[in-house]
């Protein structure tokens, strides 16, 4: 479950210079990984990472793949270091892949990985929640009106207006519902 998202645009943007292009380095890293030649895979990904032509996404994926290689070599410390670096420094953001990648099973519960993911996900979560949070600021409420006029068990009238300005928890039960 190696993360290699080869970018066709990277290959198209490469000029022929005699040295391996970023795309070629990524492919070499992938081939060495598949052959379980992890040290060679790391070397190829490090060259891709250091290339002046490497985009942010290429750097994120190369550093992530270096971390996976180290983990597969049994070097958990270096593996976690590179996985965290891929997130915090290079912006690796495929969190679903991070949580499912079998290469990371040996460090799935590592606190450093979890903290890096949490820090990276918070801004995205805040951005996604921003419209809902704005609705909560609306004096009319969070997008719908909840009005009621009821009678209490002792027959007194009771409505939502009696709760104005107060914090209330409304729990609605059905008389027909046995668990209620």
Short description:
The chain is mainly alpha-helical.
Annotation keywords:
single chain; 180 residues; mainly alpha; two-stranded antiparallel ribbon; 7 helices; 3% strand
Per-chain topology:
Blueprint: H1 8-13, H2 22-34, H3 38-50, H4 56-72, H5 76-88, H6 95-100, H7 111-137, E1 149-151, E2 157-159
Antiparallel strand pairs: 1-2
Helix pairs in contact: 2-3, 2-4, 3-4, 4-5, 5-7
Spatial separation of the terminal alpha carbons:
47 Å
Oligomeric state of this protein: single chain
Mean pLDDT: 81
Count of separate DSSP helical elements: 7
Written account of the structure:
- This protein is mostly helical and 180 residues long.
- 53% of the residues lie in helices and 3% in strands.
- It is built from seven helices and two strands.
- It has a two-stranded antiparallel ribbon.
- β1 and β2 (157-159) form a beta hairpin.
- Residues 5-18 have low confidence and may be disordered.
